[in-house]
Structure to design on (477 residues):
């Protein structure tokens, strides 16, 4: 290495130092860590990066910054020339040794990286620089997830996904978890992401909004192709809150990505607040693809599970506040009274902690009753599903569910079918077209006719009115 090269490399490391302090460690490690100096020639500096995407991203967002860092070092430089370098073929033995060292280093870096940042993002691998994941909460791991009857299957499936290795046969794809608010969907998805990211496997966690934002941003910078390629280079794609996925082109892109990943044997994990069949804004093809995997509902938290969650939250709080005590009767009261969701349970413990710390008093039942009054909600009626209505009505009238969905017009099928449509309209939030679709693809006018017909009959036929009330009670219990 000649003298000139030595000084060139010295200058380059000083420029990198300037760049690092100018953009900050995170941005630097995401975009510039793998930028190399090729040569300095005349008024221009030739730099290279390993991917096309990196090149276009740096040109679009950081060209001036890189140039001014060079000019601070060498005022004569007026141009930065950025190219994509071709991978050099390395002999296998050297490659293996190098890989092992790199793996160890990466592992060490990842650990350090996770310990450094309170809310860490997924380590971005070299192949998809475009895609920083959505932020992860370090508390949401399998270790802190409280399992119980209502979430056994979802937890087992999530663990199975997290423990998979690259190249394994994917057992169920996609894994689709749905549940109401605060029942632990996001906790499970983030746990999969934390547990699944190994040196050989990349798990990317995105909210639906982040997916849309990434796609739109990629379209703006004309790197949509790179964005798609990058997405498809991922081993496990985790998408949270799918019900927020909006827009025709985003949905089409999501559909392509989903198909490409599943066809390539990569794992997709999705969470939403309702089953695939109820995602009315989504394309039919996407819906059927989602329904073709393992669809798991996480049910409401039973009282025992609520008590376990409260205990685990108290234990977590005691790690920082050793003197914090919640007597057993208080925990039992909270587990009985707060039926709604896990976030309210956590909120209750936080309030008790704040109250006992700020007022230097111990936690009592009276205090708990006072503090959590607004978290105790009236029992909501059960969310009734159209399948349940069809099943209960078919049983009541002694016909089969497929009779209700069929085009048969005999009296013994027509009346039960109309009753079922009427119940679907009154007990669920589904639209008329959606109800028609779920009753063998009927038109919404048919549903409207059925609803009006039954309304009129119930008003004057006491027996039918009692029958409908009985069906409603059965469905809501």
């Amino acid at each position: 290495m000649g003298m000139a090269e030595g000084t060139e490399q010295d200058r380059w490391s000083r420029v990198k130092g300037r760049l690092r302090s100018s953009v900050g460690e995170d941005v630097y490690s995401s975009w510039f860590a793998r930028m190399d100096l090729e040569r300095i020639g005349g008024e221009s500096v030739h730099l290279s990066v390993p991917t096309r995407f990196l090149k276009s991203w740096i040109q679009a967002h950081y060209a001036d910054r890189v140039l001014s860092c060079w000019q601070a070092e060498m005022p004569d430089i007026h141009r930065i020339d950025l190219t994509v370098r071709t991978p050099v073929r390395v002999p296998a033995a050297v490659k293996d040794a190098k890989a092992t060292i790199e793996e160890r280093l990466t592992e060490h870096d990842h650990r350090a990286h996770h310990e450094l940042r309170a809310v860490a993002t997924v380590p971005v691998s070299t192949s998809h620089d475009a895609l920083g994941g959505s932020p992860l909460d370090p508390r949401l791991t399998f270790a802190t997830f409280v399992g119980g009857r209502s979430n056994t299957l979802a937890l087992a499936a999530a663990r199975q996904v997290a423990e998979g290795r690259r190249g394994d046969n994917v057992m169920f794809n996609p894994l689709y978890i749905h549940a109401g608010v605060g029942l632990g969907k996001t906790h499970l998805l983030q746990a999969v992401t934390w547990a699944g990211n190994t040196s050989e496997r990349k798990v990317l966690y995105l909210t639906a909004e982040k997916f849309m934002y990434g796609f739109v941003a990629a379209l703006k910078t004309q790197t949509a192709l790179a964005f798609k390629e990058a997405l498809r280079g991922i081993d496990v794609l985790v998408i949270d809150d799918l019900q927020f996925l909006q827009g025709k082109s985003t949905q089409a892109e999501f559909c392509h990505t989903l198909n490409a990943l599943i066809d390539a044997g990569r794992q997709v994990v999705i969470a939403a607040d309702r089953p695939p069949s109820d995602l009315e804004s989504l394309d039919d093809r996407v819906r059927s693809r989602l329904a073709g995997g393992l669809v798991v509902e996480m049910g409401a938290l039973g009282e025992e599970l609520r008590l376990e969650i409260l205990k685990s939250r108290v234990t977590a709080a005691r790690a920082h506040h050793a003197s914090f005590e919640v007597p057993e009767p208080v925990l039992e009261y909270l587990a009985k009274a707060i039926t709604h969701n896990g976030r309210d349970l956590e909120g209750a413990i936080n309030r008790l902690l704040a109250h006992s710390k700020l007022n230097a008093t111990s936690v009592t039942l009276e205090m708990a009753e006072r503090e959590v009054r607004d978290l105790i909600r009236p029992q909501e009626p059960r969310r009734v599903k159209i399948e349940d209505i069809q099943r209960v009505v078919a049983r009541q009238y002694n016909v089969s569910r497929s009779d209700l969905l069929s085009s048969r017009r005999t009296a013994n099928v027509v009346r039960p079918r109309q009753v079922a449509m009427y119940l679907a309209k009154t007990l669920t939030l589904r639209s008329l077209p959606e109800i028609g679709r779920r009753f063998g693809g009927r038109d919404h006018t048919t549903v409207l006719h059925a609803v009006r017909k039954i309304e009129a009959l119930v008003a004057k036929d006491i027996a039918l009115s009692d029958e409908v009330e009985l069906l409603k009670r059965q469905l809501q219990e």
Q: What stands out?
A: Strands lie at 36-41, 44-49, 79-84, 175-178, 203-207, 236-240, 267-272, 294-297. The chain has a mean pLDDT of 81.
